[in-house]
Design goal:
The structure holds 2 protein chains of 2 kinds. By secondary structure, chain A is an all-alpha fold. Chain A has 21 helices and 2 strands. Chain A has a two-stranded antiparallel sheet with strand order 1-2. The chains are: A mainly alpha, B mainly alpha.
Chain lengths: ~650, ~200
């Protein structure tokens, strides 16, 4: 085999990418060696099972993926605003919209939210770690190697180019030969395993490790949203696992599930994909709702209005999310009756969502709002998301959908819900809980710049796209030099660059705050407005989270604690704390499974088998591993707590 | 991570870690139900799409499938007896019954492999039609689960021989017994909805 069979050649942009990847890799290796940080990296991060560190790694990876997906978006927007420039060819354009969608959903939105869940959920329920810390590390590394595999595709082997939905027969072996689609299948499969494991892990954590006295209906709303999300993950992800496996077997071993020969059914892929895919969009929006609820209650300085209604509406949304998948392909021709049923179930989702919107508004009503950066993201979410939601109901009407289907109207709709919902929530949540993670706040002034740039850019970018869609511009279109579409496309591109600028300012703010922000001295970082247990911990949070676990029997327990002048810390009740040991097994196991996936992508079966054997050996090693962790002594806890609390 | 342990009740439920592990595994089995449900749905949708390959009615024979069913159902029973011995604290009884369980499992796998090879000889392979793809992947996924279960159980038997019955080993053994019974349930569905229906229609 020749090197040019593996590396992608002939594209100046990709050569530039190769050079920059090589330079960045060399720079990282050099810096780690120069500052003698390899041991630190391995001991403190690569082998960690601490949920807070794993969460930070999730969020850092997600930010990197947001950058990658954002670059893809910019390139598409340049192409669409200057169609005659010849910036991208059609093949490259196809690859870019495919990787943009896949990366943003699977490798940006989910890990970002899972990262926040990792850090915050145990703190909110008064737990010391996840139920299964080892499994948590395993989940992270499976996501990480899945993401890496998917990302190297554009320099090695060629990117997938059949859209993030990867519809058959286009994505089948006959019409998409080569490793491209395999990258999609194996990258998602590998990271999907980790997502499922996280779903189980968080569910057990929330069900079994809550502070004494805390009933389910005492839990903070973000924890509730996580629990509901985990149910969706557990019941939706196996469908994706099967769908990906079937298409992989089709492509590599010649079965006939989705082929046009052998009486296969290509449209079965669309069904399986969206039976996972629609619950998936609720996996990325429910935690976002949870974050907004926390932020709004905190800065409105009131208990969340209609807590019970909020919880029940999330549960109803979760159930309905499994009953609407056909609305993604009304035009498939399932018939008027089927389309009507799915039309109605789709529109039903607007009801519990509307309940949530009114509850947020009622929380804000007559409250003394503090306009911090997380609050700005949350307040701007409400009207922006409504624009996305209402157009969603329009798309949900089957008859009308024949007009909107696969047009830019749809593109504008899902960007309005996913960006104004999920991305705003990721930013809000990150800024909100940033002091818990790093011991200092992000700069508010720069944060507001980032917010306004991103917010304005977002509307300038996507609002025109509704009208482009109504004017008939189809999605995934490579050539747009049609005079009546051009002005709106140019406006949209300007907006996209505004968002890019906003993101750059946001990232700069991370650096700026690291250098210049005041270090936190109290755990209750937002002017003492914290309502839930995570604000009762000291900052930085000790590795065992809570020296003594508080008794909780109400919503927002920290409010009363502060009124009564109490803390969660009670020195008389200190006992040795049991903690899990760090281990290098998860990263090693997942690197072997990553190797196996890599072998399957290129259909090098010996490599795949070697990787699989390595993975199985690591599982056996794990099975014989009886490491029970260790105990932190009372003296050490006392020393840490006294220092942190200034006693 | 609470260190307090109960002094009574089954060993596997005494520690918080044990209780969480078992609950986590039940949730995992929930996910497995969805996985197999998807495969069953795929099979149902592709039923009859045999293209030029033989139909299932031509190939399925009641004899061998009945033997396989008998083997697997019996293995589930002996697995239950092994857990019963575990509750009595009898390591030896546990090992004997589990070895019998695994022997039955291996026999089941042997028949399944024989059956697959036989179908392939008759012109029904993974590649020959959508129906046969669905059949082989559904039954094969079950067979793969049985194979993994056998390997896993052997590892646990070694650990129990080395360490005796502790909170941790009994939790592990209890979990694999749940897994084994689950595979039995899946097989009952395969037996009825794949083989019985396939022979009739």
């Amino acid at each position: 085999m020749h090197i040019t069979d593996i590396l992608v050649t002939g594209e100046p942009i990709i050569y530039a990418a190769m050079v920059s990847i090589a330079l960045v890799t060399v720079a990282i290796v050099f810096l780690l060696t120069y500052f003698k940080k390899w041991g630190w990296l391995w001991r403190e991060w690569l082998t960690t099972v601490d949920h807070k560190k794993i969460g930070i790694m999730y969020i850092l990876s997600a930010l990197a993926m947001l950058f990658r997906g954002g670059m893809d978006a910019m390139m598409m927007r340049v192409q669409l605003a200057f169609p005659n420039l010849g910036f991208l060819d059609s093949q490259h354009y196809n690859e870019i919209f495919t990787t943009h969608g896949t990366i943003m959903i699977i490798f940006m939105a989910m890990p970002f939210l899972i990262g926040l869940m990792n850090i915050i959920v145990p703190l909110q329920i008064g737990a010391r770690d996840f139920a299964f810390p080892y499994l948590n590390a395993l989940s992270f590394w499976s996501f990480f190697f899945g993401a890496m595999l998917f990302n190297i595709s554009f320099v090695i082997g060629g990117s997938p180019d059949a859209g993030w939905t990867s519809y058959t027969p286009l994505s089948g072996a006959a019409m998409s030969p080569g490793p491209g689609q395999n990258f999609y299948l194996m990258g998602l499969q590998l990271s999907g395993i980790g997502t499922l494991a996280t779903g189980i892990n968080l569910m057990v954590t929330i069900l079994k490790m809550r502070a004494p006295g805390m009933k389910l209906f005492h839990m903070p709303i973000f924890t509730w949203s996580t629990l509901v999300t985990c149910f969706i993950i557990v019941f939706a992800f196996p469908i994706l696992t099967v769908a990906l496996a079937l298409l992989t077997i089709d492509r590599i071993f010649g079965s006939q599930f989705f082929t046009l020969t052998g009486e296969g059914l290509p449209m079965m892929w669309a069904n399986l994909f969206w039976m996972w895919g629609h619950p998936e969009v609720y996996i990325v929006i429910l935690p976002a709702f949870g974050i907004f609820s926390e932020v709004i209650a905190t800065f409105a300085k009131k208990r969340l209005f209609g807590y019970n209604a909020m919880v029940w509406s999330m549960i109803i949304i979760a159930l309905l999310s499994f009953l609407v998948w056909v609305h993604h392909f009304f035009t498939m021709g399932a018939g008027a009756f089927v389309n009507s049923v799915f039309s109605v179930s789709t529109m039903l989702i607007a009801v519990p969502t509307g309940v949530k919107i009114f509850n947020w508004l009622a929380t804000l009503y007559k409250s003394k709002i503090e306009f911090t950066v997380p609050m700005l993201w949350s307040l701007s979410f409400i009207p922006s998301f409504i624009l996305g939601g209402v157009t969603g109901v329009m798309l949900g009407m089957a008859a009308a959908d024949y007009q909107f289907h696969n047009s830019y109207f749809l593109v504008a709709h899902f960007h309005y819900v996913l960006i104004a919902g999920t991305v705003f929530a990721c930013f809000a949540g990150l800024v909100f809980w940033y002091p818990k993670m790093f011991g200092h706040k992000m700069n508010e002034r720069i944060g507001k710049w980032a917010f306004w740039l991103f917010f304005a850019g977002f509307h300038v970018c996507f609002f025109p796209q509704y009208f482009l869609g109504l004017d008939g511009m189809p999605r995934r279109l490579f050539i747009t030099n049609i005079a009546e579409w051009l002005p709106l496309n140019i406006i949209s591109t300007v907006g996209a660059f505004g968002m890019g600028l906003g993101f750059a300012v946001f990232v700069y703010n991370i650096y700026y705050s690291y250098r210049y922000s005041e270090r936190e001295t109290t755990g209750d970082s937002w002017n003492g407005n914290g309502r839930t247990l995570e604000w009762a911990t000291t900052t930085p949070v000790p590795f065992y989270n809570f020296a003594t676990v508080p008794y909780v029997d109400e919503i927002d327990p920290y409010v009363r604690m502060k009124e009564e002048g109490k803390t969660t810390f009670d020195e008389t009740k200190l006992k040795p704390i049991h903690m899990p040991s760090y281990t290098g097994q998860p990263i090693i196991m997942m690197s072997f499974l990553g190797l196996a996936s890599f072998g399957l992508i290129f259909e090098w079966i010996p490599v795949a088998i070697a990787g699989l054997i390595g993975g199985v050996v690591m599982m056996i090693v794990r099975s014989f591993d009886y490491d029970d962790g260790y105990y932190v002594s009372v003296e050490e806890i006392k020393r840490i707590e006294r220092k942190a609390r200034g006693l | 991570m609470a260190a307090e342990e109960l002094k009574t009740g089954p060993l596997e439920y005494r520690s918080q870690e044990g209780r969480m592990g078992i609950l986590g595994f039940w949730i995992f089995l929930g996910a497995e139900v969805v996985l197999f449900a998807t495969l069953f749905a795929t099979y149902a949708v592709l039923f009859g799409r045999t293209a030029d390959a033989p139909t299932p009615a031509e190939l399925f024979e009641p004899g061998i499938v009945l033997i396989m069913t008998f083997l697997l159902l019996t293995s589930s029973f002996t697995c239950g007896l092994a857990v019963n011995e575990m509750r009595k604290g009898n390591t030896k009884g546990l090992t004997i019954w589990m070895v019998i369980t695994l022997a039955l499992g291996v026999a089941f796998l042997g028949f399944e492999i024989y059956e697959f090879v036989h179908y392939a000889h008759e012109g029904a392979t993974l590649q020959s039609s959508a129906y046969w793809s669905a059949f082989f992947v559904l039954a094969g996924t079950h067979g793969l689960h049985v194979t993994l279960g056998i390997g896993w159980a052997i590892l646990l038997l070694i650990q129990i021989a080395k360490r005796g019955l502790t909170n941790k080993t009994s939790r592990k053994f209890f979990v694999i017994s749940l897994y084994w019974h689950f595979l039995d349930v899946i097989w009952i569905f395969i037996f009825t909805s794949v083989y019985l229906i396939g022979m009739v229609i």
